[in-house]
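G., the chain you wanted modeled:
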Amino acid sequence: MDRTFSWVLQLLFACAALALVLADDPIPKTAAEKLKKLLFTENEYDRTIRPSEETNPTTVLFGLTITHFSVCDANSRLTVNGWSRLNWEDQKMRWNPDNYSGLKALHVPYNELWIPDVVLYNSAIGNKIDQHGMTYSIVYNNGSVLWVPPSIYQAVCKMDLRFWPFDRQSCKIVIGSWTHHIGQIKLQPWTTWRESEILIPNDEWDLVNVDEQLNEKKYDCCEELYADITYTLTLQRRSEVYKTLIMTPVFVIIILSLSAFLLPTHAGEKIVLNSITAIIITYLLYDAGQRLPAIASNPPLIVLYFGSCLLMTAIAFFESTLVIKISRNYGAHPLPPFIKQALSGWFGSFILNGQNSQVQKKANDEELSSKVQAETSTLEFNREWIMFASALDRIFFIVYALIYLIKIISFYVTVL
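Predicted structure as tokens:
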């Protein structure tokens, strides 16, 4: 019995020893694992230190492919979605492919490598400087590193809305190293943006042109020069929708405003028509205020136009009230002589289109008896005042028509 128990114990110890031996024999590592261990562990790679001698700048090539963009008028912000392309040489990332099964490229997470601190200078979100996605980089055996992260740039753009909604904007994206001057990082543009690149069109804006420029600038904080690449995007607003939303009401306002002067002088509908016109203009001004930011200088011409139209409508409202009052309540008093004389001449014939015969008749009718004249004086006075009210309407119609015509011509000449 003791002998059997002893053999069982020996068998268990033998199995345990075999298990330990097998555990000490690891699975063979791949060439990529061996290479990564050499580059990062054995060479004691430090991702926080620039991989070049202090006297030698690291040349960083930067390119940008725009896939989509949007513009926020209210916040004066340009948002660009795209692919950033960075390429530089890391002297610590070199190896002989023959020693690693011909391996010439290694995929490395971005947070394990030294990455240039290239950020957006004119960012609209000051506390968020990381505009790049967390993607892998490709390290080649000659030390060249390629990193193509998806990026979102939100830049401040000074909007000139004077010709809104037919405006053209020029927005800039300024990209450069945040802490390294040109003696440490030599930033160079890689490839210029091409229209054949992937681009998702914007529904409101057309991308007319993209200019790329390398700049070197000295800031107040430091003595060294800092390099940046400035992309200037020229954007043209698509105005087809606005022609319906904005320009159609403009002509409706003109028609309604002028129609009020063509109604009979005693018609109360003149007040109603002017009130409707004022309501339409007020709504258009409110809608423009919701679409546009508060602008201290160079307000949009279309807003100034609506503002002047509202003022003209208020004046027309007062004129219509005066004309109605004259037509209804001034029959007991004669028309002042200087007004009667003006309406009896060529001016009255032009304004009233020959309808001043009643005034001329009153001046020339000397054959009627005094009794008949006394009975008809009130009627004649009323006719004279109605002619005067009609003359006011015709004068305002001509003046307003000329003002609207000048406004439209000047607006289109300025914009187009």
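The CA atoms of residues 268 and 280 lie 19 Å apart.

Shout if anything looks off.
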